[in-house]
Write a structure and sequence with these properties.
Distance between the termini: 24 Å
Shape: globular
Number of domains: 2
Strand order of the largest sheet: 3-2-1-4-5
Number of strands: 12
Order of helices and strands: EEEHEHEHEEEHHEEHHEHEHHH
Helix content: 40-55%
CATH topology of the largest domain: Nucleotidyltransferase, domain 5
Number of helices: 11
Strand content: 15-25%
CATH superfamily of the largest domain: ATPase, nucleotide binding domain
């Protein structure tokens, strides 16, 4: 019987559990989207917490079967969105409470990390050639962050000031009649037409602005512009925004790891790599594996493994990647 580490993540989108082995590999990873009614844009925090508590037993049951085959050495949860004393979101309390209870029952250490670190750790799975320092772009419904990652931790150098990349896609997708979240449905439209560059990529010294794209896209919908065209141009502006942000803020590393739900888009990956190649390969983009791009607990489990072997030393745990 070998050692294993349980990870739990309860985000605005997904309930997830995962087991990492003693070598940092993933034994099993299971998740379930939070139920959102047609036409609605997500859940209130109180409703999301209730949904997590309701569906956690089913998600956990799928993982607990594998737990019987291993010695569980620690439990790790994402207890807040990102680093910083002002980072807080009630929905993560569901995972924290459940994780603490499981750890106490098993008599093993309990560790906390952030949702963002979990995304980065998950993105590093099967990502060859990524070494410190590197740049990370976290694109999701709740985050549009550009980060410099080194041996000492994570440093944000640019963020969205109004809405996030995933919010833009979801808001427009729901208006088009798609379920929430809408990413996979929007992406299906993008291969039908070529982008026209109709939306401006706004990046200033104080960060990124996307609400203007949303407003213009809504006007285009009202004027009868085909949904396919709008979708193609939304992904096009996101690719231009990424390149423009990197150019303006000039992070130390040109090696770029892209994670978050939006990173699961093959279309975005394709046009971003195409733009980079046209610029002489100035940036080297590595995208998270699709199964680890959207919200999941795999990275949290790996962080738990690293914290256990480093005896809770966060810096030493970070260096374990």
């Amino acid at each position: 019987m070998t050692d294993a580490f349980l990870g739990i993540d309860t985000s605005n989108y997904t309930t997830s559990c995962a087991l990492a082995d003693e070598n940092g590999g993933i034994i099993i990873s299971r998740k379930a989207l939070l139920p959102v009614k047609q036409g609605e844009l997500g859940l209130r925090q109180s409703d999301a917490i209730f949904a997590h508590l309701k569906q956690f037993p089913d998600v956990y049951q799928n993982v607990s079967g594998k737990m019987q085959e291993h010695r569980i050495k620690a439990v790790c949860v994402s207890s807040k969105p990102r680093d910083g004393t002002d980072s807080y979101m009630p929905v993560f309390l569901a995972g924290k409470t459940l994780g603490q209870t499981i750890a106490q029952t098993l008599g093993v250490p309990f560790f906390e990390t952030t949702h963002q670190k979990g995304h980065i750790a998950a993105a590093l799975i099967q990502s060859e050639g990524i070494r410190f320092p590197f740049t990370t772009i976290h694109l999701s419904g709740g985050t549009t962050d550009f980060l410099s990652v080194d041996e000492h931790g994570i440093h944000t150098f640019a963020s969205a000031n109004d809405i996030h990349a995933g919010q833009l896609i979801d808001r427009l997708g729901v208006l088009m009649g798609f379920p929430f979240p809408s990413g996979k449905y929007m992406e299906e439209l993008t291969g039908k037409v070529k982008s026209t560059g109709r939306y401006s990529a706004i990046v200033k010294a104080d960060g990124i602005w996307l609400s203007g794209v949303e407003s213009q896209a809504k006007r285009d919908m009202e004027q009868g512009i085909p949904f396919e065209q709008i979708a193609a141009d939304v992904y096009d502006v996101l690719s231009r925004l990424i390149i423009k942000t990197l150019d303006i803020f000039a992070p130390p590393s040109k090696m770029v790891l892209v994670t978050g739900g939006v990173a699961s888009s093959d279309h975005l990956k394709g046009i971003l790599n195409e733009r980079s190649e046209k610029r002489g390969g100035k940036y080297s983009f590595t995208f998270s594996q699709p199964q680890y791009a959207s919200d999941n607990a795999a990275g949290v489990a790996i962080i738990g493994r690293n914290l256990y072997y480093s005896k809770g030393d966060e810096n030493a745990a970070w260096l374990s990647f």
